[in-house]
Amino acid sequence: MTYPLLVTKRMTDFPSDSHTLERYEATGGYKAARASVGMTRDQLVEAIKNSGLLGRGGAAFSAGLKWSFLAPARPAYLVVNADESEPGTFKDRQLLERDPHQLVEGIIITAIANEVHRAFVYVRGEYPKPARRVQKAIDEAYAEGYLGKGIFGSSYDLDVVVHLGAGAYICGEETALINSLEGLRGEPRLKPPYFPAAVGLYNKPTIVNNVETLSNLPHILNQGIDSYKGLGHEADTGTFLFSISGHVKKPGNYELPHGITWNELIFDIAGGMRRERRLKTWIPGGASAPWFVPSDHLELPITKDDTAKAGSMLGSGAVVVMDEATCVVRAAERIVRFFAHESCGQCTPCREGTSWLEMILRRIEAGQGREVDFDLLLDVSDNISIGLAWPPRMTTICPLGPSAVSPIISITKYFKGEIMTHIHDGGCPLPA
User: Fold this and answer.
1) Cβ distance 76 to 70 under 8 Å?
2) What values do phi and psi take at 119, rounded to 5?
3) What SS3 state is found at 359?
4) Where does residue 427 rank: exposed (0-12), middle (13-18), buried (19+ CB within 10 A)?
5) CA 8, CA 13: separation in Å to the nearest integer?
6) Which residues are 246's β-sheet partners?
7) Topology adopted by domain 328-425
């Protein structure tokens, strides 16, 4: 099978000057931004609604519909979520480093559509090079009159500020990100009343969009809505970036339409399993997502709805593949340990529960597990995510706590025998 939309370039394959203004404009850059200056808010919002563009940050909510919710109070703000910290995700890094002007153009279009005159780009603390690249692109745009006073010779003013975070995972959640931007602790806010579109940055209406979401906007306006919709699946329009890592022969970022199967993605596109081992399991949407297994999900179409019906999510496009030599208890413990470490501590079920889950898993992995530990894992998980269903019924303000439950649900559902082998035989039968 051929994939005409497939992008297989590694970062080293890109032109060395792909991040510069000269290269971007040579390929039609800022054409859409110039056109947007002469468009009204209603025209831009309707265009993005009709394009079917889904947010690429994890929630997969309609970008145009999100814009339409912006409260009428002014000033309003735009916040770009570049805090890419979900384990397994590395697509935004490539966009920031290799094509920052595409993001800047997307910012301009979004700002005009939402009557915003001040935008902030919140970059993950561990991304100093991407932050420098974005700042350089913004400086070049200012120098050309694409940002600042009277952009593109119009009467519209727009300023953009780059803000480097301090490396907290929780600041990828939009209200925690807003808190951090305001100089407060990176803790999520309650919704309601703090829906950003109504009460966001500085308690003003705020649009929060992901890097990949905004990077789609120039192409929608340049290609036209019908052309953009024709690129992908009828329900999930356009192309999506997949960050594939783990035990595959060809890990990397791939730009593909939704609608292909997991079999095609893992074996045809990513080259199949290293060392010719068998596929054991994979995480379809970053560490927060429940896992899939070959017997149930290999021929499942990759779409938002099909994945949700199967009990997981596509999230931010991070696919982590594990082969038959993987200890699922060890893998789950590493993920839970991450979430326990990154908990902001605001909600008791998350603050206490994630640490308990980590301790129980570590005990089982070390060969000191007890029969009761299997039920104890489920009991603690149920106090964080009631019913152990997906989407989760949360006892916390944000999804971090339930995210730590996802690997527990997965291994107890699909790999109970392996867990019990750890308990009965005093440790993992697989090599460390």
Assistant:
1) yes
2) -125, 150
3) helix
4) middle
5) 9
6) 321
7) de novo design (two linked rop proteins) (1.20.1440)
Q: What six digits make up the tokens of 341?
A: 């470490």
Average pLDDT over residues 177-191: 97
Instruction: Establish how many alpha carbons lie within 13 A of residue 238's alpha carbon, considering only the half-sphere containing its beta carbon.
Output: 28
Q: Residue 296 above 80 pLDDT?
A: yes
Task: Report CA torsion sign: 181, 182, 184, 190.
Answer: negative
Other C-beta atoms lying within 10 Å of the C-beta of residue 59: 15
Tokens of 263: 């079999």
Q: Which CATH number fits domain 239-323: 2.40.420.20, 3.40.50.300, 3.40.50.1820, 3.10.20.600?
A: 3.10.20.600
The helix (H) or strand (E) run that includes residue 121 is strand 118-123
Q: How far apart are CA 108 and CA 218, in angstroms?
A: 10
Those residues whose C-beta lies under 8 Å from the C-beta of residue 15, and which sit 6 or more positions away, are 23
Query: If phi over 0 gives left and psi between -120 and 50 gives alpha, with beta otherwise, what is residue 302?
Result: beta
Q: Give per-residue pLDDT as tens, 269-283.
A: 999 999 999 999 999
> How many CA atoms lie less than 13 Å away from 237 in the CB half-sphere?
21
Q: Which of 393, 298, 286, 312 is nearest to 56 (CA)?
A: 286
Residue 193: cis peptide before it, omega within 30 degrees of 0: yes
DSSP state of 12: G
**CA distance linking residue 258 with residue 264, whole number of Å:** 11
Q: pLDDT tens-digit profile of 339-378?
A: 999 999 999 999 999 999 999 999 999 999 999 999 999 9
Token pair recorded at residue 357: 């889950």
More confident residue, 346 or 430: 346
8-state DSSP, 188: P
pLDDT at 13 over 70: no
Name the class of domain 11-229: alpha beta
Q: What is the pLDDT of residue 57?
A: 87
What is the DSSP secondary structure assignment for residue 231, as one 8-state letter? Answer: T
Q: Is the pTM of this model over 0.70?
A: yes
**Rounded CA gap, 262 and 13, in Å?**
26
Q: Please, which pLDDT band fits residue 427 given cuts at 50, 70 and 90? A: confident
Strands (E), 31-117: 77-82
